[in-house]
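Our preliminary data section would be incomplete without showing what the modeling component actually yields. Below, a chain of 131 amino acids is followed by its predicted structure, encoded as tokens that our downstream tools consume directly.
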Amino acid sequence: MIKTIALPEDLRPLLEHYHVDMLVEKHEGWGNRYAKDPNTRISLIGDFKVILPIWHRRESKIDIFKIAPSTDGMLLTIYLLDSTYIEQDGFVVIAEKIPNTDIYVAVIFHNSFWVKELWTRSHANKTLLGV
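Predicted structure:
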């Protein structure tokens, strides 16, 4: 489950410069929806604050599988599992850090069935290894 906090209004003008490349359920989207959407919120992903293009009704159905920060701390790669529907969907997210803040914004948000496969394998390996 992803928890969220309100987006500070003074951050909204900075978001005008960020666009998201989305591929969700075979529908493509691209644009700077964050600045214009009044429902934009900050998601708490592990120790990171990330702006994601998710629908707020789905937050309780999304689990964090893995977070991998870049060595310079300017990018995050995030793997999410969404159980909103009967079949779990996986998402791969690349988020860029907004300069002079501790907030990241998703610039790539793609469906990936491979995420579910990775999650299944990792849990199978833990079971096989007795972890």
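The CA atoms of residues 44 and 73 lie 16 Å apart. The two ends are 23 Å apart (CA to CA). Preliminary results of this kind motivate Aim 1 of the renewal.
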